[in-house]
């Protein structure tokens, strides 16, 4: 095999092995500026998108011991991987597709589980870990916050608007 191909395949293999997920997108019709914007948005959530020959990715998936996605690896295909949550990357792709009508999520891998496009769209709707933890913290703190407001109002009543002394006139 050509040494250049080995370098590309090795780089892809490192990316796939380091990521807990892989999302395969069809970027047909995206302009270069739009594709750059997609990459920037993915980068902001800890993900990245690479374009490689489908035959290279088939080889990478085989070497990594991951399921074969052969039937989905056709045409202009991009591969999204990351070091953070799959939810954030899927949400970026879904929102980008709403805005620009492209790209289309084809298939994904979460660990060794194959996810179709519908499941990826459902994952995109799940809130991030930070959002879930924030909601949980708010739920836990709510009873204490209510108690603090009641105690504060009980011991620090608002000043009465008018007192008996101020209404006296002579």
Work out the radius of gyration: 27 Å
* Shape call: elongated
**Low-confidence sequence ranges:** none
In the CATH hierarchy, the architecture of the largest domain is 2-Layer Sandwich
Helix-and-strand structural type: alpha+beta
Helical residues, percent: 40-55%
How many angstroms separate the termini? 108 Å
Oligomer: single chain
Please sum up the structure shown.
This protein is of the alpha+beta class. The protein has helices spanning 3-18, 32-44, 54-64, 86-100, 117-125, 129-155; strands at 21-26, 47-51, 77-82, 104-110, 113-116.
Q: Would you give an account of this structure?
A:
The mean pLDDT is 84. The longest helix is centred in the last third of the chain and has 27 residues, at 129-155. A 5-stranded antiparallel sheet has the order 2-3-1-4-5, sandwiched between helices. The radius of gyration is 27 Å and the shape is elongated. The protein has helices at residues 3-18, 32-44, 54-64, 86-100, 117-125, 129-155, and strands at residues 21-26, 47-51, 77-82, 104-110, 113-116. By secondary structure, the protein is α+β, with helices and mostly antiparallel strands. It folds into 2 domains: 3-126, Ribosomal protein L10, N-terminal RNA-binding domain (Alpha-Beta Plaits); 127-158, no CATH class. Helix 2 runs antiparallel to helix 4 (86-100) and helix 4 crosses helix 5.
């Amino acid at each position: 095999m050509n040494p250049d191909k080995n370098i590309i395949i090795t780089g892809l293999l490192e990316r796939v092995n380091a990521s807990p997920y892989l999302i395969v997108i069809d970027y047909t019709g995206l302009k270069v500026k739009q594709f750059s914007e997609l990459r920037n948005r993915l980068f902001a959530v800890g993900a990245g998108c690479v374009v490689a020959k489908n035959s290279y990715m088939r080889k990478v998936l085989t070497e990594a011991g991951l399921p074969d996605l052969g039937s989905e690896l056709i045409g202009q295909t991009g591969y999204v991987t990351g070091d953070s949550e799959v939810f954030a990357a899927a949400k970026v792709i879904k929102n980008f597709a709403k805005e620009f009508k492209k790209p289309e999520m084809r298939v994904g891998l979460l660990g060794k589980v194959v996810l179709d496009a519908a499941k990826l769209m459902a994952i995109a709707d799940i809130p991030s870990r930070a959002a879930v933890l924030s909601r949980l913290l708010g739920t836990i703190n709510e009873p204490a916050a209510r108690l603090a407001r009641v105690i504060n109002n009980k011991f620090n009543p608002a000043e009465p608007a008018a007192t008996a002394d101020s209404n006296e006139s002579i």
